[in-house]
Amino acid sequence: MSWDPDYRPRLRSVEPFAVPTGESSPDSRGLQVGLRDPSGLSNVVLTVSRPALGLLALMDGRRCCAEIRDEFLQTYGQPVSTDTVAGMIDHLRDALFLEDETFERFYETRLQEYREHGIREMPHAEALGLGSDAVHFLDGILLRSAPVSTTGEVVGVVAPHLDYPRGEPCYAAAYGALRGRQAPDRVVILGTNHFGRSTSVVATANDFNTPLGATSTDVGFLERVEARCGNLRTFELDHVREHSVELQVAFLQQLFGAASFKMVPILCPDPCGEAWAKEDGNGGVPLGDFVNALRDAVEQDPCDTLIVAGADLSHVGESFGDERTLDDGFLEQVRRRDAHALDCLINQGSEAFVDAVSHENNPTRVCSTGCISVLAAVLSEAKPHLLRYHQTVDHESQTCVTCAALAYTR
């Protein structure tokens, strides 16, 4: 690009990762860092030097190119030429890493293609542990589940969105609670938006296709919800890579049959900040407005509606940034914190759960406060039952993810 001192580049949310150089020098300036798009919209991987990360950090849409150049010199004591800044911006634009007209044109094209296709595929079934014989695999999990006894009809379920092998104890408990239940007319599936652009609620009208078959989306019901709260599909592409909904779809298909129910796929943001009551920066629907709209639509519809939240809890260990190793004492602290949040959910409801997770700035990184909170708020008149709590621990990678299974009955 030609040098434009007034241009204010804004970097999209990209993920850095270490790239080994094979050099023996301890000088960190010689190490390379890879950059990739966690949303999967761009498949480009860029490699930059560590000092260049400082330059990228200044590309937040608030500084023009000249200010980036001058502030980099002031902060790091290293001059950077206008050609270097301009060249970096060119590479970022080509990689679709900037929030600019080039990316927006690309996004609109992909969005139109996605909507015209009408099907949301399950691209990573094998990686998530589904295996080549999905029916046998999922049936085995259900058969290994202990019988679940609850009073009343199950109208809501909280299940993990971990891969099936690691989340099996809670998958078995959650979906074991649905064994023997009549197939619902509709399942509202609330997931977690891990990688998408939006910081608000995101729905999709596309049908979902898994190795067990295709399940249609209840577009009419979705439109009735949107008529109450506003458009939920501006960032529909957030569903393309997100796995938290599709993992529930496969289990529901196994239980009821892929064509026996319709679904409403929804991704929820984290309400631990201000998202519960306010619009996000992209003009999305406030989470509280969505809760009210969904509750009204469910209550005013005579069809049998089941609500499922695909939710994990804490994420701890060195790989998530903790300085402590995963010893018994640390894991017990995590268990107690999770137990307190779940106790607040069961005995006090949605807002108390959000407050418990938010306390001390969510130090164990609970990732699914949004979808659990929405389910609990919409089903506030139902009775929650904690069926199972599980910690999946990998000491080699120093990773622990926790989850729970709950059933809501009426």
Account of the 3D structure:
The protein is globular and about 70 Å long. Helix 7 (219-229) crosses helix 9, helix 10 (328-348) packs antiparallel against helix 11 and helix 11 runs antiparallel to helix 12 (369-378). Mean pLDDT is 91; it is low at 24-30 and 274-280. The chain folds into two domains: 15-107, no CATH class; 119-409, LigB-like (Protocatechuate 4,5-dioxygenase, Chain B). By secondary structure, it is of the alpha/beta class. The protein has helices spanning 50-57, 65-76, 82-94, 101-117, 134-143, 164-176, 219-229, 246-256, 287-299, 328-348, 350-358, 369-378, and strands at residues 15-19, 32-36, 46-49, 119-121, 154-159, 186-192, 202-203, 207-210, 213-215, 262-268, 305-310, 315-316, 383-394, 399-409. The longest helix is centred in the last third of the chain and has 21 residues, at 328-348. The N and C termini lie far apart (62 Å). The chain is built from twelve helices and 14 strands. 36% of the residues lie in helices and 19% in strands. The strands form three sheets. Strands 5, 6, 7, 10, 11, 12, 13 and 14 form an eight-stranded mixed sheet that branches. It has a three-stranded antiparallel sheet with strand order 1-2-3. A three-stranded mixed sheet has the order 4-8-9.
